[in-house]
Write a structure and sequence with these properties.
It holds the Pfam family TraF. The protein is of the alpha/beta class. Helices cover 62% and strands 10% of the residues. Strand 1, helix 8 and strand 2 form a beta-alpha-beta unit.
Length: 300
């Protein structure tokens, strides 16, 4: 009886021990696979976790980061190629000299003060604008003085075709009149004048004496051409054969033409009443434009 009891107790102890071991194994397995359980943080596990975290962060960053010209991208701003392009662009822009900077600064300051005074014309604002204007005038006066002095010291800078004073202008006009007279007398040898008139034209009556005096003065042959009549105010006229009709289809009168002796070249030099000086100026302008007269032809 005692032997059976001992065996029973021994078997029970082994069963209990086995049950405890099984329970411990189950608890350990449950703790490893539970929702709130922990992971063995060895080196490989840590690297995997970091890699997964960075990849997920990059995906979120790329998908949610705003893009557009209003978004400041710090990485983009400091890229070497962009900085290099900006530096090269600055090198290409020419730097202003100091005198350019001073003049530009004075001009901008004066324009700003002038606009401010116009917008708010207080005594203070107007005085500021006037002081800046005075600085500009003083610089201009000094420049004009040096310009005149340079012309006096270096005669090659003088332009003889532009009169510098009243006496020079008078002498210049006398010389110009003499040259013009020589040119016109030379032209009169091979060129003539045609005055187109019409009955009932008061302007024609007033213009005829001016044209006659001009033609007699320089020796031009003068012909009167009428649109319809054979005489105009007692002056013999020639009826237009169609040539002037082509040049003057509206039949405006009076019109003065310059025509060469062959009758091929004909140019209008006056429409309406003008002075003798203006007739001469227009004739010389036409001749110069068409290069029909050379200086050597009339120089004495």
């Amino acid at each position: 009886m005692m032997k059976w009891l001992v065996n029973t107790i021994t078997k029970s102890s082994l069963a209990i021990t086995s049950l405890v071991i099984i329970l411990l194994l189950l608890i350990n397995d449950w703790s490893n696979h539970a929702f709130a359980g922990t992971i063995d943080l060895n080196a490989n596990s840590i690297n995997k976790m970091i890699g997964l975290d960075l990849a997920s962060n990059n995906e979120v960053k790329d998908s949610t980061q705003p893009k557009g010209f209003l978004w400041y991208n710090e990485d983009h701003a400091y890229k070497p190629e962009i900085l290099k392009f900006s530096q090269d662009q600055k090198k290409q822009e020419p730097e202003l000299e100091l005198y350019d900077q001073r003049i530009e600064a004075l001009k901008k300051e004066f324009n700003r003060a002038k606009r401010k005074a116009l917008d708010d014309p207080t005594l203070e604002n107007v005085i500021i604008a006037q002081r800046l204007h005075k600085q500009i005038l003083e610089k201009s006066y000094k420049f004009a003085t040096m310009w005149q002095l340079a012309t006096l010291l270096d005669y090659s800078l003088t332009n003889e075709n532009i009169p510098a004073n009243s006496l020079h202008k008078k002498l210049y006009e006398i010389r110009q009149d003499k040259d013009s007279s020589q040119k016109l007398r030379f032209l009169a040898k091979n060129w003539g004048l045609i005055l187109q008139v019409n009955q009932g034209c008061n302007y024609c009556q007033a213009f005829i004496p001016i044209v006659r005096e001009f033609a007699d003065k320089y020796g031009f042959q003068l012909i009167f051409v009428s649109n319809s009549e054979t005489r105009f105010q007692g002056i013999p006229t020639i009826k237009d054969t169609g040539l002037l009709q082509t040049l003057n289809p509206a039949k405006l009168v009076p019109v003065l033409y310059l025509i060469d002796s062959s009758g091929i070249q004909i140019y209008p030099v006056a429409r309406g009443i003008i002075s003798e000086d203006k007739i001469a100026e227009n004739i010389l302008l036409v001749i110069q434009h068409y290069n029909r007269l050379k200086v050597n032809d009339y120089d004495q």
